Structures are given as structure tokens and as C-alpha cells.
Amino acid sequence: MTSRCVRSCPYCFAKREMEGSPSGDIVSWENLIYLADFLAASNQDHLSLLGGEPTLHPQFVDMVLYLIERRFHVTVFTSGIMADKRLREVSDHLSAVPPGPLGFVVNLNNPHQTPAPEQETQRIAKFLSLMGPWCTPGFNIYRTDFDIEFLFDLIARYGMHRHIRLGLASPMPGVESVFIKPDDVRTVIDRLYSFKPSLDRFDIKPGLDCGFPLCGFTDEQLGWLMRCSGKFKFGCGPAIDLTPDLNVYACFPLSGFNKRSLFEFDSMRQVQDFYQNLFNRVRTETAGIYEECDGCIHREEGRCAGGGACQVMNRFVGEAPVRLQEIERGLSKPCIAV
Hints:
Layout: H1 15-19, H2 29-41, E1 46-49, H3 60-69, E2 73-78, H4 84-94, E3 102-107, H5 118-131, E4 135-141, H6 149-158, E5 163-168, H7 185-193, H8 196-201, E6 205-208, H9 219-229, E7 241-242, E8 247-249, E9 260-261, H10 268-285, H11 297-300, H12 309-314, H13 325-328
Parallel strand pairs: 1-2, 2-3, 3-4, 4-5, 5-6
Antiparallel strand pairs: 7-8, 8-9
């Protein structure tokens, strides 16, 4: 909805897109209506509103209500940090919408490991006190000693969903950023499993975003995940993102990779097929984030994608330009003598 943000998180995977956008870049009503028509014609009824910070958009509340009136299920990804005037608008108008068609994923940082001004903490508390039952906590893992204990208190205090959306901080190929490297993924998984007693005690279910490889888990860990959360898919398909001017790309970390205009496509299926084909070509070049991904039965049978595509492509950056042209396009590479 906008490229502006109220935070500067060290792991931000949207940094590349936001830094390349005009400071006043916001989605217009014309583009929002076009997108709604496009999705409806594609039989898609779910969409997420992101930023930057989407609540900074001047017409944020009106646009959410418009999409819900058109029978879309809307998920807002937010920091929960907003001015008092915007918070009143959200409370007055969106609290009347049932949690079914509207939800918030609140991206929360551990205040001890990612310090923030006290004013930010207070604003998040205000938002959660009003909209907690609509909210799912989100947590981005960017260090191996991460701590999620603080989320348990917030969930209980504000009546948030007993589910935590866990994401691995991802690299933006060719851009300096903080992220979890492939060699550290198993350490991250073991660290997550160390919170099992507390997660079980408070009946809180972990939800894994893309990028986790199946082989990083022991059978015991997989059994626990299946028991508490049901079926898991260790995939990495295109998570289609659109900019305010309706440019489209595979996902935020790959915002520089084969970006197109939505106007080039007739349906969302065409968009997904286009980027899935590119992802398949990436996997043909390199199967996954580990050498053993090549020939892995779990990957060949579709149970695991072999880790995140952005992790795979990040390995290409330091190489000579020997990959397929569709893969080389959009990678920020240093000059290499060949």
C-alpha cells in the first residue's frame, strides 16, 4: 500500500523495494479497484495488505472496508505502531468487522534483542488492547539466539490468536542485509524446539513461513509439529507481491528479480505460472540450499523445496554470469574477471 515505514528493522526483506520507491509512493484508488477486479476475475478472494507500514496510507481504513465490502478476506501486515488519529479510525470502523474477513498479522520484535523507543512499545500496546482478537503475532528470526517468550505474555494479555507466524529473515540477492544463513538453519530449528514446553503449556501453535528445509528437523521435532499444528509443507513457491503502481514480482526478497507489470497478465494464474516457471529454472541450476538437496527424495517427491529460492539465488551473486539469462536478470552482481 505504501513504501513508507515507521521502523528500520535490521532484517527487513522489503528494504530493497522501499529504497527504490519514491518517498510518496502509495497505491491509488484507481489501482486498488483494478486489482480488486483482477483478483475477482481470477477467483481469488484472499489478499494481504503490506508496506512499509500499510496503516500509513491516508485512505487505509476506507480501502480495507471497500475490499471487505467486495467480499475479500483481508490480512493486514502491520507493526501496530500508528498515530492516535489512525488508531481511533481503526477502532471505530474496523472493530465492527468480524475477525473472519479481516485479520492482522502484527510483526513483533523482542524488545530486549531488538530495542525500540518506549513510545513505539506504548503504541503497539494501545493497538493490541483494541484489536487483539483480530491479531496473529508474527516474528522474524534473524539471529540464532532468538527469544519468543515475550510473545506468550502478549497473546494472553490481549487475547491474540494462539498461533505464531514464524519467518526466517531472508537475503536479498546482491544487497547487504541481515539474514539466517543455510549453515545456521538447523541451529534455529533446535532453538525453536527449546520453546516446546512453553508452547505446549500455553497451547500456542507455531506456524512456519517458507524457507525451512525438511531435513533440518529431527523425526521428533517433525512429530511435534504435526501433532500441534497438522500438516506442514516445506515449500517455497512464488508469494506474489505488487507495488503501488502495480508492478509485480515473486516475493519481497526477490523484488529485483524479473519484475513485471500486472498489466502484462490476464489472470493471477498467469502471474503465478510465470514465476513458478522461473523458480523451477532456478532449482534446475541448483537444487537447494545444501549440496545434499540434489537427489533428495523429499525434494523430488515435492515434500520439500530445498530451502528458500532467495537463499539459492544469493549463492549465484558471487559467481561469473554463467546461469540462464532469466536467472541472471535482476541479480546485483559485483564485477568479476572471467
